[in-house]
Amino acid sequence: MDEIEYPALYLKRGEDARLRAGHLWVFANEVDVARSPLASFEAGEPCAILDSRDKPLGVGYVNPHSLISARLVSRGLEHALDAPLLTHRLNVALALRERLHAEPYYRWLYGESDFVPGLVLDRFDDVVVAQAATAGIERLKPAVEAAVREVLNPRAMIWKNDAGIRALEQLPAYADIAFGDVPAPLVVREGGLEFALDPIGGQKTGWFFDQRANRDALAPFVQGARVLDLFSYLGAWGLRAAAMGAKGVACVDASAPAVAMIEDNARRNGLADRVHAERADAFEYLKAARERRGHFDVVILDPPAFVKRKKDFREGALAYRRLNELAMQVLARDGILITCSCSYHMPREALLQGIQQGARHLDRGAQVLASLQQAPDHPVHPAIPETAYLKGFACRVLPA
Predict the structure, then answer these.
(1) pLDDT, tens digit, for every residue of 180-198?
(2) Active-site residues: which are they?
């Protein structure tokens, strides 16, 4: 097979080890800029990545404006960055999701873990919501759309390109419809329930598929329980708990539109009699509940990332500990705390340490019943620790 001819990006001596071990990223300080000046590349331009001895590592794309200056997409020089390559990757990714799920609602493609760095695809039956996190994928949008049509031919496709990470690639934030007609509302099915969502104005792609497996495991903890679901968004945790037999659920979110959609989703699923939605800041809600001596049998914490950058660790870790300690103060004597972090820079061990410190400060004891992680439609790449971001614990909290 003929080799693809792309401009060459040369690595410095010894800087190829991580890529040969399986990682897909090239950092700016690893590039031999004397041989391949980064300024000579356009943002998102395809390239051939070579080591210092001119041995090819593969084909990728470049962004001279980003700390991660290149990402490897295909090993060897046989495949172009085009729709046929993306069609193959999408088919391989789809085969896994169809094995995992009986219904067509899932993360179809998860970036680096599915060997298409910078691209996320979520499937809502016959609608696909895509996110391009890099200049390379932004440049490949027509090829991505062609591959999605070839593999799935959905009713519609949406680009939800408003994630903060795009700023690191000097890309604008926007959301628009790639093709087709988007139903209003868009609906996702999970655990026998239906949730209406907003793929344009909602968070991320409109739904958090990464927590589905953890929500699936709620039943033993919530049957007959009083449940508090904080940072509830569209009520996924709370409504699932109600459907699994919780006798009462309070869903709390700081967004008024989210609270309205929780109420709508509760009615949609016949759960309005057991689900109450309230607009409030989670920290303030917990303080008020503590002051009125309110108690819950189960408290669920699924907050946004408190540690978005490594330098935020100290402040973010303190926020996680404070949140968990406040939650324990409104737990019944033999209560269940389900607590999560989606911050890659918050290590699992540090989250657990904060839980333990909070428990001891309250003179209580914690037992870890289960460790939580992202669902299998968000597979972890063994060579790329950055793909493992979601962690959590189901804990029993007792008097000391």
Answers:
(1) 999 989 999 999 999 999 9
(2) 342
